[in-house]
Each structure stands twice: as structure tokens, then as C-alpha cells.
Design brief:
Blueprint: H1 3-31, H2 38-67
Helix pairs in contact: 1-2
Length: about 70
Amino acid sequence: MNTIENINKKMHVTGSLINLKTIQENFEKINAKDICSEDEKQEIMEFLNAIDTELNSIQEKIGFIRQM
């Protein structure tokens, strides 16, 4: 693997680790909530949407790395 491909792969792996950290933080926020009020349910939905976005980003990075 040439140097540029190797650097590119490492950037995608590092980016995926950042995505995973963001996912963890959002799950921690969800865990701290009591699902009682509509406001809290809405906040949880926002956290779940953020998690979904991060997962999609990881999937894109995995696809890119597999193509290398």
C-alpha cells in the first residue's frame, strides 16, 4: 500500500474512532434521561438521530477502506 493510501486509511480509521466516541456520548446522555416528559422524549430522539448520523458516517468510512 503506498503512503498516500496508508495515510488516507488511517484518517478514516481515526474518523471512525471519533464517530464511536460521539455515539458513546449520546448513549450516555440518553441513559441519564428519565423518559417522562415530551421534552425529554424529544431530546432522546435528537440523540438517537445523532447516533444514526455517526453510524452512517462509519459505514461510509468502512466502505472506503474496503475499496482500497
